[in-house]
Sequence to fold (247 residues):
Amino acid sequence: MYVDESGDPGNNTAQSDYFCLSGLVVHESEWRAFIDRLVAFRQTMRSVYGLPLRTEIHAVEIVRKNQFDIAKHHRLAILRNYLDELSKLNSISITNVVVNKANKPADFDIFSAAWSTLFQRFENTIAHGNFPGGYKRSYGLVFTDATSGKKLTSIMRRMSVYNPIPNRWGGGFNNSPIVRIIEDPSERNSKASLPIQSCDVVAYFLHQRLRPNSYIRKKGASKYFDRLDPVLNKLASAKDPQGIVFI
Fold:
């Protein structure tokens, strides 16, 4: 699972009202074909829009900055095409977690709550064989952008020993340690990782779906996230039609 975020994990809503995580899962047997599709997509974007092949696609920067003399509406089109390309891949699944900062207590740990929830959904989905292809006996690795590595490692190690899950019918908790996720989360430089860049684009439009900026509203792009519907992990939450886990 490759993961990236959008929004600020601090409690200050002046920075952002939401903190979003998007985790893209691909089985190792499909990994090479997945990368090949991403490379082919980048080659197409170079041919059509002049986007250099090795340039990092960072959604916020693509929208805000006029790089490589590409018109702003064309830069938005690149991101839209990116979502459409991901939506065609029947080998991937995307799990999304959103923390709504409104009315959270001052000591609420937004970062830990979001990541713990994503790890748990990754664990559950593997255990039930609900990722593409099934693979009920599979185990998973987590790859993240190079941020907050020590805190993520701490969260993962704690959950592998003590992971209290509320009893479904009430009355206490059951300790259910994480066993399907192996190793500590591994950091990747997003500039050199096409899967991390993919997660960046997904998380950006998840955030824009909830709180679009003026340009996204003007261009009618606040619903671009919906283009990913075919590859969303809808089993992550029964409370949301797209499976988004809201905290």
